[in-house]
């Protein structure tokens, strides 16, 4: 499936969709903030680059967003750099 990610300038984050129960289940909207994409995933500057960085790292970002959703489905999902373990590089 093609990426549904878009950059939201007002929120300073990339919005994306996750499907915790597969593509036939609910579509959940989540975000990852710009700082996390720069600090944890070394995103270059620019809105397009932030979305590309999300796309390249979607597996790990989506996995964390899905885990957060499962912890509490009623809470908005906005991932920050502190939500990720240090990368070691």
What gross morphology would you assign? globular
- Main sheet record: 4 strands, mixed
Q: Show unreliable segments.
A: none
The oligomeric state of the chains shown is single chain
Terminal-residue CA separation:
30 Å
How large is the count of helical segments?
Answer: 3
Rg over CA atoms, rounded to whole Å, is: 12 Å
Placed side by side, the strands forming the largest sheet appear as 1-2-3-4
SS class: alpha+beta
Mean pLDDT value: 92
How much of the sequence lies in strands comes to 15-25%
Number of strands: 4
Run of helices and strands: EEEHHHE
| Share of helical residues | 25-40%
Written description of the protein model:
- The longest helix has 14 residues, at 58-71.
- A hairpin with a 4-residue loop joins β1 and β2 (13-18).
- The protein has helices spanning 34-41, 47-56, 58-71, and strands at 6-8, 13-18, 28-33, 77-79.
- The protein has 89 residues and is an alpha+beta fold.
- The chain starts with 5 loop residues before the first strand and ends in a 10-residue tail after the last strand.
- The chain has a domain at 38-89.
